[in-house]
Input
Amino acid sequence: MNELTDNDELYGIICQHDHADELDTRLNSLSNVDEILMFLHLRDEQCLTLLMLAALYGKDEMVRVILAHSSDIPKLVELHGYVFRIDGTFVKNATALWCACDRGHYTVARTLIEIGGAKINNGPKYPLLIDAIIVGRLDTIRFLIENSYADINNTRNNDNYKFNSLIMAVIHGHTQIVAFLLEKGSRCDYVTPTSNNSALSYAAMKGYLEIVRLLCTAGACSFSKNRNGQTPLMLAAKNDRMDIVDYLLDHSDSEIGIKQLELVACSFIVVVNSNTIQQIQFQRMIRLMHKIYEIRQKKNLTKTIVQPIAAYAFYQECQIIEEFNKIEHDNERLYIEALIIRERILVPEKDETLFKPLLIIGDKLVEQEQFERCIHLWEHTFYLYQNMNLETGLHRFVWLFCRMLSANAYISPQRFVQICRLTFEPSQQKPKDDYIKNALCFLAIAIKILERPTLTKTERQLIYQWINDFSRQKRTTSHGQTLLHLCVDEQTYYDINYRPHDIKPILKFPNLAITQLLVTHYNQWIDINAVEATSGNTALHISCKNSIIDSLAVVQLLINSGAHIDCMNVHDRTPFDIAEANPIRTLLKIKQLPLRLKCLCARRILDKQLPYELIWPKETEMNSFLFLHGGLAKFSENSSTNS
Output
């Protein structure tokens, strides 16, 4: 008898009889039993083994007979087939255990688990417990949990969300199953690794009030935050589940809850993915704010209102619903209201989500050429960053002033200097290269403002005083570059990477005007022969290797201001040695003749390796002079040898 005929006969025995001995006799007569048992039989559009068939029909004795005749029970038990679920849906990757559970044959299921070693977590897609929860099979769930076959807290679905049994029951709205799981000890504090949402979070989002009650009674925390900082209360409000909002507020701290609702109301218009806020989003904010004012009035909860400031156009937050009603048709005013509310709530919590809307609205103000309002807003934002001990720079102000120059807008010298003086704030004292480069950009902008003939003497003095105060700090980059190095280096221009399409047309480097200003009026703070740390280049070295035409004028200015032409970097190269442009090489050749006597003496001392370090104190002007004329290279060579 061929294999197909054998399977047909055995199929008939399982479907039509309850005589396990008949099946046993027939299997004993076959020489290829394992092949027959492992064969996936196609019948009634289903593809299944004899073991799956016996499980579907609840034939426990026959299941035991089949297991007894198999030489590889683990493989047989875990074979997958295609089967119709009891509700008629087609299921792929079904095992014999799944077939037994689907038909409610739990005696067979027990046999498969305890004798066949069937794996509980080997379901068609998810573990059997999760699969049963999805389709609402409380009987299967009871069987798996009450017999300790499935772990109620550690069983999770297989995808990235990692939902546990309780969360899966909540998501599918199975109230009875949620109640059963909680009764059997399911923990409420589990959160998904991708979103940090809890079971209560999902119940609030979905609007399942009865499940919310069950979870809260079981001790679920209504103020736990997910990865986006949203609590179950906030998720309920965001999804218009007001019955759940009312319930959670009645069972938690009302003051904290109200603040969370206010953040949700603000999020409808300030935390959006598009540049244009739709009217429906304003309406959602308005509806929720009305609800909040009603709750405040009912619970007698007042706000702490701060004084109005220029950053928010001197508007003050509404205190009562009547005040709010007056602004609800003014979208711009509603947006400012949202910013004020967020600041009141988020600043004490040092929550960084405060800032993004402030920066976005500033960008929009610039596009609308409301520059003064943007300056006030971003200055206020800068101090908020600083007060929270968060990193921030002044690059946005550089961009803002460049946009003003491009638009020929008036820049108030007083307001400009006020922003420039932010460079002295504690947060800007950190040794970050961007900070000194931003200050240099302010210098370039200051030069352009100083060119205006309408400036008063007092206004000019304000700008000069800031330049003096900044220059005397003698700040350098991490590579030891001074303001002068950066000012004469064409790389400074190429390094502008924040909105360069707006800034580069306005600010140019090398910058002859800034160089002139620094070496002429602030030379007591500017060392024209200072060397940077990496290559030991002076400002003259850097100017000479530039390829830009304007560099010739900068080189001439530096030389005329006292820059040493024959100074050497760590590679023993002078500015002439590294100059590439012929006009610059010609100028250097003219200027370096005749050689100065003190330069020749310095070279002689170094060539003879005289121990000058022992004659004069290290920081004296003489030692510095020798250092520039070859001592730097010697020092670098000795350091390399010692290391």
In short: DSSP finds 36 helices and four strands in the chain. Residues 160-252 form a domain with the Serine Threonine Protein Phosphatase 5, Tetratricopeptide repeat fold (CATH 1.25.40.20).
